[in-house]
């Protein structure tokens, strides 16, 4: 007993070091659970209020650019309005409104924190539970997809960026609808990799990649980007397709959070089937 | 004593805010990010007890980790750096020994000593941080390249900042 006590006293520094390191590594490995269950993430009130104040100041300097983006988006939307089309329709089908039920609802939000230089990048948005955002909502900008909501507090939420090596997004080639899985390799902030597209599929540089709509998070047809180059893996069955993201992750200010109103129903059904 | 405590508490807060709001937005060539907050561990006085160094390193890493949403990654690196500090100080001991009254600064111990002291600790921190972050040894040379770039920028920032705080 005395020997043990003397040993502990002699090496108390090294023991403290080992304890703190083990605690840190534990946090690295369990960071998902820890972030959800505790205040240890940047949507807690102290950090988000500081980020918010800072963002209020800096967003002033990019107002003119933001205006330009909004104006071009407005023009784009106005182009889609029925009033700006001349009708050439000859056969008119009668459609009752009651057969259309809204599946996706869009909530506008502002990015108050963002990173692109790590392996696990996150964004923080200024909308949360009180504005109707829940976990696993999709996030898109006016130019393309951004990520998936991870944690939600009352007025803020954190978003797993597409530039996070933990995220996989079901996506497809627009022209022939073959689908694969999109994953970031942790290198360039504007390029991701689309895998699981077999060799016989005809894909060319410049082809458009969109979301597949298979995952109950993203609606079908959200823009992801265009093919940069195509890599054939020796001995494999699938292409590595490098995709240039259409969203400029260094320059996102305003985004839309998309809520799938039928998600719970779809997930419950799919879980039932996968149990067998 | 209380005055010192207050002084380093202010340093702590200023460095964390500076790192989260300014430096995290500075990115050269896409993935290089200077980590200047570790300056706190370098400037703590020589007679800081070693256990306090470890605790301060842990708290410093934790505050950065919460802000970055990278819980644990920064913490493990700063704790490692705090643990390495007394060892490095012993290895590169100053010519006339250390004076507890004097700051660990190149105006007191010379440029060569200061470079050895700061660069080795910054390198230790970066090596640990980046390998914990990727959590794998695949892509080894790519990670080494990223470490080197960030290491250079962090070192330049820390050395420049020390020019402004020359004290006898």
What distinguishing features does this structure have?
heterodimer, A: 276 residues, alpha+beta, Thrombin, subunit H, six-stranded antiparallel barrel, six-stranded antiparallel β-barrel, 6 helices, 12 strands, B: 168 residues, mainly alpha, Arp2/3 complex 21 kDa subunit ARPC3, 7 helices, 69% helix, globular
Describe this structure in words.
The complex is a heterodimer of chains A (276) and B (168). Chain A has helices spanning 2-10, 12-29, 31-37, 45-58, 63-80, 263-274; strands at 104-114, 120-125, 138-140, 145-152, 157-164, 168-173, 179-183, 191-198, 208-211, 223-232, 238-245, 254-260. In chain A, the strands form two sheets. Chain A has a six-stranded antiparallel beta barrel. Chain A has a six-stranded antiparallel beta barrel with strand order 6-7-8-11-10-9. Chain A has a domain at 168-249: Rod shape-determining protein MreC, domain 2 (Thrombin, subunit H, Beta Barrel). Chain A is built from six helices and twelve strands. With 168 residues, chain B is an all-alpha fold. Chain B has seven helices and no strands. In chain B, helix 1 packs parallel to helix 3 (50-68) and helix 4 packs antiparallel against helix 6. The A-B interface holds A 12-13, 16-17, 20-21, 23-29, 31, 34-35, 40-42, 44, 47, 50-51, 54, 115-120, 122, 158, 186-189, 250 and B 17, 20-21, 24, 27, 30-33, 50-51, 54, 57-58, 61-62, 65-73, 75-76, 79-80, 83, 132-135, 142.
**Total count of strands of chain A:** 12
CATH-defined topology of the domain at 168-249 in chain A: Thrombin, subunit H
Give the distance, in angstroms, between the N- and C-terminal Cα atoms of chain A.
57 Å
Number of helices of chain B: 7
Helix content of chain B: 55-70%
Q: On the 0-100 scale, what is the average pLDDT of chain B?
A: 86
- Strand arrangement across the biggest beta sheet of chain A: 1-2-5-4-3-12
- Strand percentage of chain B: under 5%
Straight-line N-to-C gap of chain B:
18 Å
CATH architectural group of chain B: Orthogonal Bundle
Q: Can you identify the CATH class of chain B? A: Mainly Alpha
The Cα radius of gyration of chain B reads: 16 Å
Report the uncertain regions of chain A: 86-96
